[in-house]
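Below is how a single chain appears once it has passed through the pipeline. First comes the sequence as given, then the structure the pipeline wrote out for it. We keep one example in the README because the format questions we get most often are answered faster by looking than by reading.
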Amino acid sequence: LTKDSLDTWPTLVEARETAIAHAERNYLKTLMSAVGGDVNKAINISGLSRSRLYALVKKHKVSAAGSTDSN
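Resulting structure:
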């Protein structure tokens, strides 16, 4: 670490949000791919409500096949 790198070091909150977003995106991509886009199966496996699943899929731009716009 250098002094310059510490000036751009993220706060704990920023690091946590980034880590959670990354984990959610990877989970959703893997889940949707594993269930072949079947939302009912995804809901049953994940324990998420339909509305929460749709909100996360939209937030992370995950397709039913499990891919993202930023693959």
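The chain has a mean pLDDT of 91.

See the next section for the split statistics.
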